[in-house]
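Bug #77: duplicate submission created two jobs. Keeping one. Sequence:
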Amino acid sequence: MLEFINTYILGNLTPVFLMAAGIYFLFRLKFFYIRHPIKVLSAMLEKNKSAGISPFRAVTLALAGTLGVGNIVGVASAIAMGGYGAIFWMWVSALLAMILKYAEIVLAVSHRRTDPVSGEHYGGAMYYIRDLFNCRGHELCGILLAGVFALFCIINSLTMGCVVQINAISRSFMGVFDLSPVLIGAATALVCVFIISGNAKKISGFTEKIIPVITLGYLGVSVAALSVRSDQIGDAFRVIFEQAFDFRSAAGGVLGFMFSRAMRLGSMRGLMSNEAGCGTAPTAHAASDTNSPSKQGFWGIFEVFVDTIVLCTITALVIIIGRVDGYENDPMMMTIKAYS
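Kept job's structure:
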């Protein structure tokens, strides 16, 4: 029963609903980020004079929760299960995820609270869920749904929210250096305790320094790996587009969405990578000292672009060009061998 719910209800219908919401906001907001990219970029680069958590710090805090496993394991598992065409559908899901994340960040900043003593901002999906029902006279319903969402966030952070991450880390160290997963888990836990022992401002200060370094470092390694076989990059893009519309593995589904295994897995892994629609990133963005919910939402668009369009794509190219066989059941080692 649990497997049926996870596979056919959560695994299939959730991406459909999230992408449908993305399409709604895309038309509702008239494709503004596609029509006016320069205006979006200039608004993001405006200086913030606040001494609190800057908009950039907030986005690095949000990126700290998304970069990594989704870009590595998510891409490799999408290719292993859905073929190279899954990458195309990751791009499609990213375009919809951009506006979806923009919308939830705007809501989070608009409905956030401010601590009367420290002056620090805090908020998230649980607050705008409650406000939505309160203004319509359904206060009890708002409290219950907001409470359920917050409870699920806590449960997820203690289960799959961290299990997926540490599993990828431990498997990579075990596969390359033959180190015990218990040892890696204990070392990672100590590092996490050190980082999260401070308040949100200290955590965001750490992510502001480390996330750009990690991102640029990963890009550098990826470019180096691709330069070895640069003549095959064009063929990699060609096979992505060829397999994206291969419907021979059709299994049926809702509104034709499930007609392609590549489409289903690509969109699911794309949403796993950037976490759009999950309600987690808005919590980090709500702590920003920005005065404009819309401008902070632009950073959400940038977040998805970096996470899925840039990093996931470059990972996929390395894996496709590397042509690693025999690691279909171990996405982490598939990626490591491709980079090797």
